[in-house]
Amino acid sequence: MNNIAPFAPVSAESLAWLGTGPIPAAPYYDPAWYALEREAVFKRSWLQIGHVCELPEPGSFIRRELEVVDASVLVVRGRDGQIRAFHNVCTHRGTQLVAEAEGKQGNFSCPYHRWSFALDGRLLSAPDFERFGLTKEECTLPGIALEICGGLIFINFAPAQSLAEELGDFAARLEQFPCASATNFSEYVYEIEGNWKLTYDNFQENYHLRFIHPRSGAAAAGEENPFGYPVKYEFQGPHRAQTIWSNPNARPTPVQAASFGRLGALAMADGLVGPTARDYLALFPNFFVIGSPGQPFSHTIWPLGPHRSRGVIRLYWKGEDDSASRRYAREYSMASARDIHAEDRNVIEAGQRGLNSGALRHIHFQTQEALCRHFFNNVSARVEAYKAEQTARPGVPA
């Protein structure tokens, strides 16, 4: 016998404040709603775009193309060690400065007319600059607000408050996650015919586990909890969290047992086993991260249109692959994550095709899909607030 307490799902009463009614279907396919999300959500939220380990020394840079806001973002570590974000545009006539996805440079020079910029965004030189009647200070690269939490880089095009203020208690929690001490990562990028919210929802509910992941999801479901429901939900402003339930009677295959056992041993040796091992943090609008030391998983889902999105899956690691054993364990962990995701893809796209028909006016969330409902409620609230703000503008008819 084991001493593990019987599983008890989170009560409906404790989640009643989220609402219980149907959810409108149009926001999952309607181009007009998508256009509102771009303005109300993505141009005003803290967006996770990278990790400090990608910028190890002065001059290191990464470029991110954010189609949802029509922005190319240049993130660079300056000579003073500070990490900054700029719009990737020359202040002469808007030409993009950097075409490479990443690299290291002493400064940035526009390929069109050779305006040159320092790592901190200052204009250093421009041919025949005297004829412009400008000062160099007027031509600094346009900056973007940037903050770091848990080693993760976030930007915001129009911040109403700091990242720490918005994350509240979740900020300290994130600093305990394996990503906070990571020095490298494995990455898998995919594109999918699915609205960003529909895609994101798949990864914040366990209701589908027994049907889509009957073997790969065995550790997250069992006889006493056949749907693998979480043992706890938490909410912090627009953000949410869950504590993942682990099946004490799971019987992994020999390969799974050996591989994840090796990952666990390595995580223990690296000092990564801590209180966040079963924690899942979903940070508004499009990012979530798991605190598992053996599979330190993050997922960012970027809208590409009302019916299409791009996902970036990363597993963050501490230290280099210093042995064949460590390399194998990490490769297995990423392959396992990718295989599980492959099982989800067809049903997400099938859901999108069904919604695109317009046959449904509403979709439905049950009690244990609480994170999905909380997510939609916050997206909807941002959109409605933006619409009200636009209507109240001088000269705009009420």
Structural description of this entry:
The chain is 26% helix and 24% strand. It has 398 residues and is α+β, with helices and mostly antiparallel strands. The protein has two domains: 8-44 and 169-393, Naphthalene 1,2-dioxygenase Alpha Subunit, Chain A, domain 1 (Alpha-Beta Complex); 47-158, Rieske Iron-sulfur Protein. The protein is globular, with a radius of gyration of 23 Å. The termini are far apart. The model has no long low-confidence stretch (mean pLDDT 92).
Shape: globular
CATH architecture of the largest domain: Alpha-Beta Complex
Please bin the fraction of helical residues.
25-40%
**Count of individual domains:** 2
Short description:
By secondary structure, the protein is α+β, with helices and mostly antiparallel strands. It has 8 helices and 19 strands.
Topology (SSEs and partners):
Elements: E1 23-24, H1 31-42, E2 47-51, E3 60-66, E4 71-77, E5 83-87, E6 102-104, E7 108-109, E8 116-117, E9 123-125, E10 143-149, E11 152-156, H2 163-167, H3 169-174, E12 184-192, H4 196-202, H5 209-212, E13 232-236, E14 239-243, H6 254-269, E15 279-283, E16 287-290, E17 297-305, E18 308-317, H7 324-356, E19 362-363, H8 370-391
Antiparallel strand pairs: 1-19, 2-11, 3-4, 3-6, 4-5, 5-10, 7-8, 8-9, 10-11, 12-18, 13-14, 14-15, 15-16, 16-17, 17-18
